[in-house]
Amino acid sequence: MRTIVVTGKTIEDAVKSGLAQWSVPEERVKVKVLEQPSKGLFGLIGAREAKVELELIPDALEEAVKFLEDVFRTMDIQVKIDRENTDDGVQLNLTGKELGILIGRRGQTLDSLQYLLNIVANRYADSHIRIVLDAESFRKRRRQTLEELSNRLATRVIRTRKEVVLEPMSPQERKVIHSKLQHHPDVKTYSKGEEPNRRVVIALR
Q: How high is the mean pLDDT of the chain?
């Protein structure tokens, strides 16, 4: 919790002074009046300025970024974090050297880090916020790979007339398969099993 005590001729002046020090809008702080201003005797003797305490309200995205920075600092790796607003929420893009350790096998480490990131962010959010974490455009490349795989397996199912059961995938990756084939005229998809071993099945309609 970050707090600051500031003074001013009026309560409003004191609050403005504190906001200027933090460079944040008034909506980002809670104001507690510690002392009311007093003009004193004849406006001179015993005059007292207003004193207020400002408490900074945490920003969900800022806290999420701080969490990532702490992780990278602990791992002793240099990573740049760029923010991108999307239709679904916010995407944080990571760039730097040796990011393979953050991606992991088929993105499993990246998915785990994204899961923790969203827990941290929603601890401070007034309403649910969704953050997608990507590294060196891995998710775009992975999506393309899964879409190509979907087409190949759909062709196999049509040719052999036997359903295909894919390896366990995360909910996000299963969604890519379902979305790619949802309008296919000859095959359908569904999921079976329990997490974390839930799989996509491609079968004839």
A: 91
